[in-house]
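Example 3.2
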Amino acid sequence: GILAGDHLKSASDLGIPLVGVGLLYRQGYFRQYLNNEGWQQEYYPENDFYNLPLSLERDENGAPLSIELEFGSRKFRVHIWKVQVGRIPFYLLDTNLEENNSEDRLITAKLYFGDQEMRMLQEILLGIGGIRALRAMDILPNICHMNEGHAAFLALERIRLLMDKREVGFKEAREIVRAGNIFTTHTPVEAGIDHFPAELLEKYFNSYYASLGLERDEFLSLGRQNPGNSQESFCMAVLALKLAAYANGVSQLHGEVSRRMWRNLWPELPEEQLPLTSITNGVHTRTWMSNHMASLLVRYLGTRWKDDPVDHGAWRRVARIPDAELWRTRQSCREKLVDFARKRLKQQLVKVGATLKEISIAEEVLDPEVLTIGFARRFATYKRGTLLMRDLDRLARILNNSEMPVQIIFAGKAHPQDHEGKELIRQIVQVSHQERFRHRIVFIEDYDMEVARHLVQGVDVWLNTPRRPMEASGTSGMKVAFNGGLNMSVLDGWWCEGYQGTNGWAIGKGEVYEDTEYQNQVESRAIYDLLEKEVVPHFYERGSDGVPRAWVNTMKASLQSLCPVFSTERMVQEYTKNAYLPAFLHWSRLVADDLSLALDLARWKERVFKAWPQVLIVLAEAQVSDAVAVGSSIPITAQVALGDLAVDEVAVEGYFGVLDSTGTIQGGECVELQHVSALGNAVHQFAGQIECRFCGRHGFMLRVMPRHKMLGIIYEPGYLIWG
């Protein structure tokens, strides 16, 4: 949700014609408090929509605008609320209406609530209800961006509406809608993806898939990696991937992980060529930067960094800031954080009935002059919130060093059903109650944007310890960087791209261990070593004026290298350039001239796919000796039987590269072979050259794919031949 908000803010700053759609939860995400033993407790205060920056959409008669949804035996009405995010309207759907029954009113009660059936109803509301709500307001989007699979049902609704409006079949409508859909996956683990049993889909979509002209199995196959497996559940991410022309992960590493996760969807393609790329997340610069830092930057950089946050030249001017002034700004932000943490800790102690003595100690915890480390995020087990606490004696020596002390502030929530995550919080709180840590470790409860803003603006070091490669991106460390804080993280998510050796610290070198206990042991020791040998001495090495110039230089390197890259301004520009505009152009071509290209494409696919079993690679040859010099070219020829297909309806390519020890081509490249002659009996000869640019064993293969005369090479699973 925070990332989505930053996305909308930057879209507003950039003038992108975009609207957002979500659900308006009456109780939202839970509020957190900790009992005396440190166990997380949840409570759900009601949101009063009339005292929030929301407005209820109304029709021309002034009545609340509403839509109706009917799925299975459920029939309910939905109101539409609007939040204005700069230039961007953000519409939120609400089922808590008196005319709805009590069960349907609960659909928008809580973010994490109920069973699979409730989850499905929420996703029907978001995807199908979201499209219907936009239509009710005369907003007809031609491009839809699905953030995670939760909204994937929108693709089906867009297809249904197009079928009704233009009187076309499912295949034709699918081509058009798919061209205008974009899908972003945000999770690197299958367990984080929504799966529904076939029985549940049948319960709610029995009449709906009939309106799409589909049979039950055809409909269910849209959400299955293997359409022929009747035992496979219906996966929302698979549905989104099949009905989106552009798909991406949220960091370069996450893109690689996602391609491995979903490679069964494109079984004939090499992993590096799967149509699932990456656009790394970012943060909204002005939302997360402190006023102290912003004022300092305006003074020495001007306002260019605000007007164009991705301008590297503007951020290079950070070198002009006097070390002493940058350090004073850092100290001011830390002092503000310490003051905030003391007040919050005092409030926490009062709520649980602590003694006056315990409450008075809260006013003395932390020190505004001490190196401050922050760790705040969702407490999932893979994020390893207690990795720093595997050797408490060593940690105590680091934190209580009389000459170079250190303090740590924790915050974060565990999912209400995640008992292992709650146990991590309890362990941290218990450690903070020990006498030797009482003034050096604090856990701030009820992590929200206010807590986050104080933390990212005030800490000196941001600690991030996920188990690689389970962090899709992460954005909290980016927010720290915009405030002059430094990152110390496992090389996972965004930090693989951000770390440059001089702008923070890396825990390990990106290793992945099969034994997680051994990995925890190795990386916890690496954290202690980094703190003792590099981070802490670096912070306390001061000049005669009290300024740690080496530390300030690292701050400047961080600001210069990270700020122009890891902003949502850059992120939204990438989405616009690589996804939104290409999708719009493709969609526009398909719908032009009364859908002529879309209709032609559907007919062409049906004809080509019917003839595809006749296509066969008869011969593949390379004219080569045993040894080939680097840089030389090797002629290759192919004879391909095309059956009923014309020469211009296929593309013949050579796929070549260096072989690994198993004889598999690694990171291969493609070169297209040109038609040379017809050999008779529908067999044709093609020829080309491959270039050997590297030393070592090389190999090549040939492949044949369909080619449309106007849209070029078109790959679909089952219609690619290797030889």
